[in-house]
Amino acid sequence: MPARIRGREDLWDKEFQALLVGLFQRGGWSAHARPSAGSQADLVIESTGKKYVVQTKRSSEGRRDRLIPLLAQAVLQAQAAARLYSKSAIPVAVVASPRISDSVAAQVKEFALTHAPEVGIGIIDSEGLRVFHGFGLERFNSERSSRSRVRLPVDSSPSTNLFSDLNQWMLKILLGQDIRESLLTIPRGQYRNGRMLAQAAGVSPMSASRFVRELLSEGFLDERQGELCLVRKEELLRRWQGASQRVSHDIPVRWIIRGGEQQLLSAVRSYCSWRDANRLRQQKPRAGRMAEPAPRVAIGLFGAADLLGMGFVHGAVPYLYLENLSVPALERLGLSVEDAKGQPDAYVRVPENKEAVFRAAVQHQGVPVSDILQVWLDVSNHPARGKEQAEQIWKRILAPAIQQVPR
After folding, report:
1. Average pLDDT value for the chain
2. Rounded percentage of the chain residues whose pLDDT exceeds 90
3. Which ranges constitute the DSSP H helices of 125-253?
4. CA 374 to each of CA 268, 272, 305, 393: distance values in angstroms, whole numbers, following the listed order
5. Does position 76 have pLDDT exceeding 60, yes or no?
6. Radius of gyration over alpha carbons of the chain, in Å?
7. Sequence-ordered list of residues with C-beta below 8 angstroms from that of 185, at least 6 positions apart, any chain
8. Over the stretch 104-116, which tens digit does the pLDDT of each residue have?
9. What's the pTM?
10. Domains of the chain
């Protein structure tokens, strides 16, 4: 980046941090930018005995696909900084842009509440929008002035209820009976009704019933077969593929200590062994509150295709699915978000459809790997020859499977 532009970026960052300092100080809180030379925090805030360690990120555009990855990075960095600062420090992640619409702010907030509920968050723009959540930060919330508010068009996109998280999991069960087990982990069998499907899928009867009704209303289920028999499978898969082309939230990461070619496989295998042992320890009766389980992981996209024997694109940056944003999990894997934006060693993706991703993952030498349906969905719109990889999976696996005569 040219020095002139870099200098302007630094100035904007300083103005953003000064805005935050002023906001908290006007509220009677103590706020300091870059509190110490060795600190990883952008700000430290104090009020009524609480200490908040704040990490800030700014985007020149207030778009969802820009702000959510930045917020994810800020969350991880705030968690790391808070752990170094004090055991009781509260991590806070704040993102800013010249203008952020109310709908985008709501989506960014929802992402944070879903994937990082233990972190305070803030979303601010230059027009006066202030959206904070968690640990008493809500007192700083405010709307932009009426003069700057722009009425946005109502989203008219079609409903995607058919492709909710649990529905995707049940779709994998119904569509994947003729896909071999080494490519897709699902319960195998025939299901006469929603109750049987619910029991096999490990979901509530109500969820399965709604799913079956949705399939019927969309014309993808034939009731005359005496079992849940899908029809128009290719159209269903293409609809699913289209519904999956939403912007993903990929977080660039780098190895803390770089190793060899098999480093990711080794790191994930070690992490999973540690996670399994930890879960067994937590299942033993003990006094006190149970600790939150470590997040699930799985290798995804092109790396998963390689491990499943379907690789077509080589040399792509690997992807790792992580159930939620967690600094301890990244550290256990040997990864860090620090200085990773320019040349990442890998990308971490927090999936919206967690159950569909992790329940259907297959085990490859002790390593969870995204199933073949998930890989096909994920690579379809990837710029690095993703369409070609998806077409290979379609021709070799999916098309033959959906053309099988129902048993």
Report:
1. 86
2. 61
3. 165-175, 194-201, 205-218, 233-243
4. 19, 20, 10, 11
5. yes
6. 23
7. 359, 360, 361, 362, 363, 371
8. 999 999 999 989 9
9. 0.79
10. 3-140 (3.40.1350.10), 161-245 (1.10.10.10), 250-279+293-399 (no CATH)
